[in-house]
Specification:
10% helix
């Protein structure tokens, strides 16, 4: 399940690098990670993101945002990540592309 919160503005560069802000929560609303609150981003080529993130991000344009619900078998499986993530947890992720860079811009994007 996914919901595009904001499609974004300009197209993503082919084989580009993305700065992505991730908010990870349990279905009960407990926030596990909130990169916005920490002022951090995850920067890597789109191809290097986990498959479930890559598929979701590829639906967006630059500055877009999507919320995805990920079943346990595609998240932390039956192990969870104690103490915060119980076994067989369905996870909710909000992914926001804060910036994208074409390959020629990625030598030093910041």
């Amino acid at each position: 399940w996914y919901h595009i919160d904001y499609i974004g503005d300009s197209p993503l560069p082919k084989n580009g690098t993305l700065d992505v802000v991730v908010k990870e929560s349990l279905t009960n609303g407990d926030v596990i990670t909130d990169m916005d609150a920490k002022g951090t981003v995850l920067t890597q080529p789109l191809a290097d993101y986990p498959p479930v993130f890559k598929e979701a991000l590829s639906k967006l344009r630059n500055h877009g945002s999507i919320t995805i619900v990920v079943p346990p078998e595609l998240a932390y499986k039956d192990k969870g990540m104690p103490p915060k993530i119980p076994p067989n947890a369905t996870m909710v992720y909000t992914l926001r592309i804060s910036e994208s860079y074409s390959d020629k811009d990625t030598v030093n994007p910041h």
